Amino acid sequence: MTDAHTASPATRDGAPVSTAGPQHRMLESDQCTQWLGAEVLIADEGHSKIQMTVRPEMTNGFDIVHGGMIFTLADTCFAMACNHPDGDADTVTVAAGADITFLKAARVGDVLTAEAHPVAQAGRSGVYDVVITRKSETIAVFRGRSRTIPFPQEGGSR
């Protein structure tokens, strides 16, 4: 069995997540997203879609998914939509702010899908919406505000 805190992306039964789908350069060193076991379904300019299967360690004291796990999934999807895989190597687009509305609970074994689309762009700033679903049911809606900045040289990886 693998250590859930250091393992490569895996399903809740420990099997590796499929990497056959589109890849995104920011995920190469993104240990948080690897820990989530997020699978990339779409990685296009301004549009991304990822999914994860909820594991027991993602739940809170009420035996439902911790809101922070859903926020993290949405935030990762948002970051992928803001940063095109073949984009400018000298800049990075980061979150300037974000909020989420939780509509329904999720439980262990649920497959959650996050899909991001741009809403507005103005210079270096943008607004993106991310809808998080379980099957076809919306469980949360995330709105992220982005800002494009020079790529940080110290401690950054690409």
TrEMBL record:
Pfam families: 4HBT. It comes from the Bacteria. Keywords: Hydrolase. Residues 1-26 are annotated as: Disordered. GO terms for molecular function: acyl-CoA hydrolase activity. Residues 63-138 form the Thioesterase domain. Belongs to the thioesterase PaaI family. This is Hydroxyphenylacetyl-CoA thioesterase PaaI. The lineage of its organism: Bacteria, Bacillati, Actinomycetota, Actinomycetes, Micrococcales.
